[in-house]
């Protein structure tokens, strides 16, 4: 075995190989990471030899060189390829957490690009020529769209919850209904975040029923806050009862020193209820009911970038802005740029709402979806005899822990291949360029065009036809 190990070429010999020179030059990587990749390749081949996975008595020095170069080329290609890439979402789930949730509008994307490619007035007041605060950039827009006295932005809604609890309820008791002690994606638990914040959780009611008197009886001299939590990705149905926000506000006159805070989770600025889609509360309506603070996500129903938005009473927002955690949790110029253009749509004429991909896709008509599906079917059937495409009725989901009980009527293209199984076809589409993410059901690949734009149709159909 030792004599075969001695046949492995040294690093400098690989570096002088013509094929390696060509590969390394095309990669534009520096010498140090390239050298490390070569060493990984040599170590890999050595390990394969020692473990008997390579028949040493059948390999020459040239064979080993080819193995090392193959491994090196594959490793370099993987290394230089973009980690974060675009995918085509054919699942029909609009706010697909694994696929990045909300897509940004064209105006938001352009504004991000403009701001990111130059210097900006992130913390600079141009008129006065003095230092400013990033909190001021879009606060007026948030005030107008929510009706709040003041508002601020942190990096996500979990951060918003933590900041509010830490700054306003540290070492105080916070009353929460047992039916709202949720755990959402990534093992984020309200009870755990409360413990980290220093606030003390006081559970009231039961899993399925919480009454007004449960809250009232729990209030004492140590109570700092009453927290109402959006239940996110689940619904309690059947023998249930809860206290709505307006009813809870009856306690406000009796206990004026308590903070009434509602974590809305998704935070809708558009009233989907008027279209018969879910029962998601509109942020403005919640604030008008009298709560002191609300928080919600920027990249869910709002349709913007990842952010946590806090809106409510000016006195409380000022305390949050001055807290040391506000700097830790602050957002950057690109988030502000995207959020600014997203919010302006809500302050524009109603027909502009379709500029926001999230809202547009949720309210997308069945006729439009059906039209895309039929076009796809005709094109694929005409272009390849290996596919069979049927149009079927189905349902889409909103996703992102939003409206878990809402099913949006849709149609899908159900695709089968004469050679590949549905799982094989789904995998080949997924590893294509761009990746096409689908659903598989009843041994067919399903494409839901609710989440496929007209601009993506060519890439989608091309991805299928590349596999024939």
TrEMBL record:
Pathway: Aminoacyl-tRNA biosynthesis; selenocysteinyl-tRNA(Sec) biosynthesis; selenocysteinyl-tRNA(Sec) from L-seryl-tRNA(Sec) (bacterial route): step 1/1
Cofactor: pyridoxal 5'-phosphate
GO CC annotations, alphabetized: cytoplasm
EC number(s) reported in the record: 2.9.1.1
Major place of residence: cytoplasm
A GO molecular-function annotation: L-seryl-tRNA(Sec) selenium transferase activity
Top EC class of this enzyme: transferase
Alphabetically ordered keywords of this record: Cytoplasm, Protein biosynthesis, Pyridoxal phosphate, Selenium, Transferase
Cited Pfam families: SelA (PF03841)
Residues found modified as N6-(pyridoxal phosphate)lysine: 300
One of the GO biological process terms: selenocysteine incorporation
InterPro entries: PyrdxlP-dep_Trfase, PyrdxlP-dep_Trfase_major, SelA-like, SelA_trans
UniProt superkingdom: Bacteria
Reaction equations catalysed: L-seryl-tRNA(Sec) + selenophosphate + H(+) = L-selenocysteinyl-tRNA(Sec) + phosphate
Subcellular location(s) per record: Cytoplasm
Role of this protein: Converts seryl-tRNA(Sec) to selenocysteinyl-tRNA(Sec) required for selenoprotein biosynthesis.
Similarity comment: Belongs to the SelA family.
Name recorded for this polypeptide: L-seryl-tRNA(Sec) selenium transferase
Gene: selA
């Amino acid at each position: 075995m030792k004599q075969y190990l001695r046949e492995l070429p040294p690093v400098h010999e690989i570096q002088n190989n013509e094929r390696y020179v060509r590969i390394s030059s095309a990669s534009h990587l520096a010498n140090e990471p390239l050298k490390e990749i070569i060493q990984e390749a040599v170590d890999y081949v050595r390990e394969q030899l020692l473990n008997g996975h390579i028949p040493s008595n059948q390999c020459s020095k040239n064979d080993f060189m080819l193995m090392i170069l193959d491994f090196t080329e594959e490793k370099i290609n993987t290394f230089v390829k973009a980690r974060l890439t675009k995918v085509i979402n054919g699942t029909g789930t609009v706010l697909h957490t694994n696929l990045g949730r909300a897509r940004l509008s064209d105006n938001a994307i352009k504004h991000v690009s403009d701001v990111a490619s130059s210097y900006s007035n992130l913390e600079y007041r141009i008129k006065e020529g003095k230092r400013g605060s990033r909190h001021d950039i879009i606060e007026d827009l948030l005030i107008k769209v929510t009706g709040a006295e003041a508002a601020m932005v942190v990096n996500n809604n979990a951060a918003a919850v933590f900041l509010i609890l830490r700054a306003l309820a540290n070492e105080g008791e916070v009353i929460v209904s047992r039916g709202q002690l949720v755990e959402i994606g990534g093992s984020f638990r309200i009870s755990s975040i409360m413990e980290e914040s220093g606030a003390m959780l006081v559970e009231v009611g039961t899993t399925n029923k919480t009454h007004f008197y449960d809250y009232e009886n729990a209030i004492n001299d140590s109570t700092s806050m009453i927290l109402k939590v959006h239940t996110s990705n689940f619904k309690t149905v059947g023998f249930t009862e809860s206290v709505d926000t307006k009813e809870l506000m009856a306690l406000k006159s009796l206990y004026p020193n308590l903070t009434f805070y509602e974590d809305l989770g998704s935070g809708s600025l558009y009233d989907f209820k008027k279209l018969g889609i879910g029962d998601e509360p509109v942020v403005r309506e919640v604030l008008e009911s009298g709560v002191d603070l609300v928080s919600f996500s920027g990249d869910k129903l709002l349709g913007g970038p990842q952010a946590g938005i806090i809106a409510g009473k000016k006195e409380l927002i000022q305390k949050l802005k001055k807290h040391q955690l506000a700097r830790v949790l602050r957002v950057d110029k690109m988030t502000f740029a995207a959020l600014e253009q997203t919010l302006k749509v809500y302050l524009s004429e109603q027909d502009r709402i379709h500029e926001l991909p999230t809202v547009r896709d949720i309210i997308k008509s069945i006729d439009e979806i059906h039209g895309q599906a039929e076009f796809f079917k005709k094109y694929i059937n005409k272009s390849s005899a290996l596919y069979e495409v049927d149009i079927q009725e189905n349902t889409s989901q909103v996703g992102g822990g939003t409206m878990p009980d809402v099913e949006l009527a849709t149609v899908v293209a159900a695709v089968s291949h004469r050679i590949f199984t549905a799982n094989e076809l789904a995998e080949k589409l997924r590893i294509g360029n761009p990746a096409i993410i689908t659903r598989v059901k009843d041994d067919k690949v399903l494409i839901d065009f609710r989440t496929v734009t007209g601009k993506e149709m060519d890439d989608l159909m091309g991805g299928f036809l590349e596999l024939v």
